Amino acid sequence: MPARMDAGAAIEVQGLTKRYGSHVAVDSVSFSVRRGEAFGILGPNGAGKTTTLEMIEGLRKPDAGEITVLGERVWPDPRRIQARIGVQLQTTSLFDMLTAKELLELFARFYLQTDAAGRAARALAQVGLDAKGGDYAKNLSGGQQQRLAIALALVHDPEIVFLDEPTTGLDPQARRNLWDVIRSINQEHGKTVVLTTHYLEEAEVLCERVAIMDESRIVALDTPAGLIAALDADARVSYTDSAGDHAVYVRDAQATVLDVLEAAREKGETVQNLAVKGADLEDVFLSLTGREYRE
Amino acid sequence: MSLNFGRLLATTVAQLRMTFRRRITLFWSLVFPMILMTLLGLLFGRSVNAGDLVVARPVTAAAPRAMVTALEHTKGLTVKTSPDAATAVKKVKDGDEDAALVFVRTSDGSYAARLYTSNTSATQAGILKGIVFGAADRVSIAATGSPPALQFQALSVDSSSLDYIDFLLPGIVALSIMISAVIGLATVLVDWRQRGILRRLKLTPIPLAEFFAARIAASLVVAVMQVVVLLAFGRIVFGIHISSTAWAGIPVALAGCLCFLAMGFAIGSTVSNPETGDAVSNVVTNPMMFLSGVFFPVAAMPSFVQVIARVLPLYYLANGLRDTTVRGLSLTHVAGDIGVLLAATAVLAAVSLRTFRWEPRT
């Protein structure tokens, strides 16, 4: 953790804490996000991801801690910074009786932008909804509604885009399509992207750095490759024998498999369900928390 | 963050789009009042005989005479005379006539008009009471003017506006403004909050006050439209008499709309889900509908109802609209009604601002 705030950071969070009664929803969370970075907060439901994000967005007031976004303190007056960020909330529903294009134009107007129609058209194109501009939001599919919510976060050309569980509830194909959209927002349009997810694969695929959150705290923060490297194992070998199920993390999967098979032959028993899997974030979570990850 | 006129306008247009695209809103604001008007018009309209009224002689003083003249000009009402009060009342008792009107000289020199109606038909008694009280009202208005005789002449020409449908129409307009404003804002506000739309708005720079100003502006446009369309409907279908002062009904309608929007806002700020919002709106608006003199004159109701009516905003909206659109009274005459409506708006708005929440209750 840097002792001083980084002037070039998009987001700087120090000791962020939020309590609801006796329950601590977010416990002394600190991290920073670089400009132009794709940053992920990964964790199971109830880990405190959304609360963390909503405090940074200025929707929930922290009980303790400092948040600086684009060099400005978010609290106590979050309205100033809110004009420079774009937010897709976890549950976004919109005015039913407006078309996608009308909604985008209205939001562009909220930000006092000129050329609302042009901005709406560009935002629709950015999320690949060009053909759906005339449809009412309620008639769009789940994936299309999420794209519209992201377009609404982009329409005023913000510097940072916050996406709260953007692909939750989508089918695998829609999820992959949305990944392309998010990647292009970050890479082609140069926006800093902060997203939360409980999908391990999503964090691994989309994020340059990932903060793993569990039970209100950040338990690890690094690049996906760095997190896996810290496991000190390349692979997970799992199998079942007369003694039950086993899973071991190893550097040399080949030697381990041979050892397991050799030992079984000496005892004259059969090994079942033998599997070798390259280590991923699921294994990182298991090794950090001692619990299996459940999406 | 300050108010921006261009943004306010764009937001108002968006609100109007949402309003007009929702069929159920259009139904309650325009179609339902038309249906109600048609049904009641067919049941109690001008073609229907209001009944027979027997007036006890002698009628000598100017005011009672003027009143009888007004009644004789009322369509659907047959006015007869009888030699004295006792005979007149007996005819009602025997069921020969529907109502008897007796003038009694009071100690201060003025006249009291006593109306005896049969209790066998409450509806007909209500209509007759309405007509006679209306006529009495008219005469007392005339009495406040400078030359009573001339003043009454002008009014008696207009006396056919005592027809039930003429009485009813402004009340229905008032009713539809109330329903659109209260139910419209209460359920919409709860829905926006529960679905997280208010939270999403909070993230954008538009101030809450400006956003709701746009909503209010859109509702006021709808209210004006209701006045114009429903009066036109009444004129074309029932041939009601729209007076030359009808334009003064617009400020009355706007004040009434503001008052009921504030009521809807107060309900929407207090309840937590759309179903409760609907229920509370109905609980608040339904009694008002029957106690505010929309369907029958408040003057024809029991005295305790008359007391209740005077604390209900709908009473002032219906009265103000009736006075301006069909009775030919000026804006100055209804300034009191507008004042009451605006005062109620201020109180209700203050209440809702105290209870307003951005977030759903957790």
Task: Please describe the structure with a list of short key phrases separated by commas or semicolons.
heterodimer; A: 295 residues; alpha/beta; 6-stranded mixed β-sheet; 13 strands; 34% helix; 29% strand; globular; disordered N terminus; B: 362 residues; 4-stranded mixed β-sheet; 14 helices; elongated
What does this structure look like?
- The complex is a heterodimer of chains A (295) and B (362).
- Chain A has 295 residues and is α/β, with parallel strands linked by helices.
- Chain A has helices spanning 49-56, 79-82, 100-110, 116-126, 142-154, 172-187, 200-206, 224-229, 253-267, 281-289; strands spanning 9-20, 23-34, 38-42, 64-69, 72-73, 85-88, 160-164, 192-197, 209-214, 217-222, 235-241, 244-250, 272-278.
- Chain A has 10 helices and 13 strands.
- In chain A, the strands form 3 sheets. Chain A has a 6-stranded mixed β-sheet with strand order 6-7-8-3-9-10, with helices on both faces. Chain A has a 4-stranded antiparallel β-sheet with strand order 2-1-4-5, with helices on one face.
- Residues 1-6 of chain A have low confidence and may be disordered.
- Chain B is built from 14 helices and 4 strands.
- The model of chain B is unreliable at 144-162 (pLDDT under 50).
- Chain B has helices at residues 5-21, 23-44, 62-72, 85-93, 122-144, 148-157, 164-194, 197-202, 208-238, 249-270, 274-291, 303-309, 313-325, 335-355; strands spanning 51-56, 77-82, 99-105, 111-117.
- Chain B is 67% helix and 7% strand.
- Chains A and B meet through helix 3 of A and helix 1 and helix 8 of B.
